[in-house]
Design a protein that fits this description.
single chain, alpha+beta, Fumarylacetoacetate hydrolase, domain 2, 6 helices, 13 strands, 33% strand, globular, Fumarylacetoacetase-like_C
């Protein structure tokens, strides 16, 4: 089943299409979903250098590959079906966080981080309902990731103060978001800490050099047309991406 479902997801993504959950044979659980996700990654030619972390509805820490993962200014992304935009902070690990019996604490995660970046994620799932009806199916579909663009670096202190900064996003010079940035669980490191302490994660995960995005600061904003997205966080951080 993993190979067949991965092929189905791959073809839908390639055709910029989405189908209802009922049209899929959904994975039985999170472990099977990750098997499908890895098969999908192989079909897409994705590498394993960048990930997103999240929490399932049942409270389990999960991760999904970011592909394509781009670091060049003014990179372009294909919009896909029913696209949404998320502005996020991403971290790069300076050292590996191996699986261990003793739980990690936040200070250890912070110490392992070598760099912090502003970033833009494009979300477009091949599953029409996303994860609303079957979270394992959504996880198999890489949590809807359609691509990620890494923006300018910033200091670690932003992880503690990002909720105090204004965020402005525009598409083709028209405002999409204008307000205070806010992470869904306040602390951007919460989901990364949870994943670091997940005993079921891959032994090769969270190695040095890995980039992990930490969750949206603006929710998921629907995108109605292609064009240039411009993002400004606080007084100093800005970036843009082309949607096509």
């Amino acid at each position: 089943m993993p190979g067949r479902l991965a092929q189905n997801l791959f073809l839908l993504r390639a055709g910029n299409r989405a189908e209802p959950t009922a049209e899929f044979q959904a994975p039985a659980g999170l472990a099977e979903a990750m098997e499908v996700q890895m098969a999908l990654a192989d079909l897409e030619g994705a590498n394993h250098e960048a990930w997103k972390v999240a929490i399932s509805p049942d409270g389990y820490a999960v991760a999904a590959l970011l592909h394509p993962f781009l670091e060049a200014a003014d990179s372009s992304l294909s919009m896909g079906a029913n696209p949404k935009l998320e502005v996020e902070l991403a971290v790069r690990l300076g050292k590996r966080l191996p699986i261990r019996a003793q739980p990690y604490v936040r200070a250890e995660i912070l110490s392992a981080i070598s760099d912090i970046f502003l970033g833009i994620e494009l979300v477009s799932s091949a599953v029409e309902e996303g994860g609303k009806l079957s979270f394992p199916l959504f996880l198999a579909d890489r949590l809807g990731n359609r691509g990620y663009v890494l923006g300018p670096p910033t200091g670690k202190e932003l992880l503690n103060t990002v909720g105090e900064l204004d965020l402005y996003i525009e598409l083709n010079d028209k405002p999409l978001f204008d307000g205070r940035s806010h992470h869904p669980v306040d602390d951007p490191l919460t989901w990364l800490l949870g994943y670091a302490n997940a005993s079921g994660r891959a032994e090769t995960s969270l190695k040095a050099g890995t980039v992990i995005t930490t969750g949206s600061l603006c929710g998921a904003i629907p995108i109605a047309e292609p064009g240039r997205i411009s993002v400004h966080l606080g007084d100093e951080l800005s970036m843009s991406v082309i949607l096509r």
